[in-house]
Amino acid sequence: MSTMRTLGEFVVENQHHFPHASGELSSLLGSIKLAAKIVNREINKAGLVDITGAVGAENIQGEEQQKLDLYANDKFKAALEARDQVCGVASEEEDEAVAFNKDLNKNAKYVVLMDPLDGSSNIDVNVSVGTIFSIYRRVSPIGSAPTQEDFLQPGHKQVAAGYIIYGSSTMLVYTTGNGVHGFTYDPSLGVFCLSHESMMIPKLGTIYSINEGNYIRFPTGIKKYIKYCQENVPEEHRPYTSRYIGSLVADFHRNLLKGGIYLYPSTESHPNGKLRLLYECNPIAFLMEQAGGKASDGKNRILDLKPTELHQRVPFVVGSPAMVDKVESFLEQYPE
Ligand code: P6P
């Protein structure tokens, strides 16, 4: 239910929670909000204009870049560079971190890491996709160019994180460490309205999200957990329901609202899993913990991991706390 409070008003009302608040967060989120509106407009036209499909190039991950991947990357970078809060960004679509060198960025205090359009291979088949962002205070001296250390901070140092889901409706969901709040976009007004204040995930859900096509390549503990989910135990609300869209933001958002767990484990071909620690797992983990859930690599808390590389991957288990605990117990019981 929309309370007719806009994102801008809500952020200003809660600005005092943001460390060293001086309107920086509202301006920083304002640039993300602007880029989200622009990307949303193009996604909703996809299919009508030549903006879908591949560009015939690959990103550093070796993944085929979609036209909208690059479009979204450009728009979010431009919006962040146009304000004086951000000194640089790291992106799934950029091999290296990008330093903003305009005078207005010189004294900026923050860096942003992002997956500008996660799940973009789904655009051509009209499945929800999303933008994921993660915000840190820089650790290098203000006034100098950002350094690798600014971007390789552990997830518990995030000052804000969130996502935009471009789905049946477009929503922006974010946290600054004081709860998770969701805003639904009203295109007729051009504003994001507060629709989900203080989102909390149910402690136990009945949805498990994993690509079971990889079953034979999963660790034994994951195979055991999948079979556990499928056992018929009515008093424990099992069997569970399998729901996997192939778009992290969409799977996560549904599980956040209804309760559930998302898993992208290690496999033989991807020993560190597929998802990237810095701009997928850390922001999603921050949101999940703020919503009362858990996020681990199957053993270690995601937010405690010390990053070593910009695009490093990590196995990922995120969702209702009791369900994450159960996965970790199976992995402990059946170590590889
Ligand atoms: P698979 C999209 O490429 C993504 O990064 C996530 O959004 C999604 O959950 C996952 O990969 C899907 O990967 O291997 O199951 O197709």
TrEMBL record:
Question: Which residues are Mg(2+) 1-binding?
Answer: 92, 115, 117
Residues reported in the UniProt entry to bind Mg(2+) 2: 115, 118, 280
Q: How is the cofactor bound?
A: Binds 2 magnesium ions per subunit.
What are its cofactors? Mg(2+)
Return the EC number.
Answer: 3.1.3.11
Query: Which residue numbers delimit the Fructose-1-6-bisphosphatase class I N-terminal domain?
Result: 6-197
Among the GO molecular function terms of this UniProt record, one is:
magnesium ion binding
Matching entries from SUPFAM superfamilies are given as:
Carbohydrate phosphatase (SSF56655)
Q: Give the reactions, separated by semicolons, that this protein catalyses.
A: beta-D-fructose 1,6-bisphosphate + H2O = beta-D-fructose 6-phosphate + phosphate
The stretch of residues making up the signal peptide is none
Residue ranges of the Fructose-1-6-bisphosphatase class 1 C-terminal domain?
Answer: 201-331
Which GO cellular component terms are attached?
A: cytosol
GO BP annotations, alphabetical order = fructose 1,6-bisphosphate metabolic process; fructose 6-phosphate metabolic process; fructose metabolic process; gluconeogenesis; sucrose biosynthetic process
Pathway-wise, it operates in: Carbohydrate biosynthesis; Calvin cycle
Q: Which residues bind substrate?
A: 118-121, 211, 244, 262-264, 274
Please give the chief subcellular localization of this protein. Answer: cytoplasm
Look up the domain of life of the source.
Bacteria
* UniProt entry keywords in alphabetical sequence: Carbohydrate metabolism, Cytoplasm, Hydrolase, Magnesium, Metal-binding
**PROSITE patterns with a match to the protein in the record:** FBPASE
Subunit comment: Homotetramer.
HAMAP family named in the record = FBPase_class1
Q: Which family does it belong to?
A: Belongs to the FBPase class 1 family.
Q: What is this protein called?
A: Fructose-1,6-bisphosphatase class 1
Q: Which organism is it from?
A: Vibrio rumoiensis 1S-45
- The gene name reads fbp
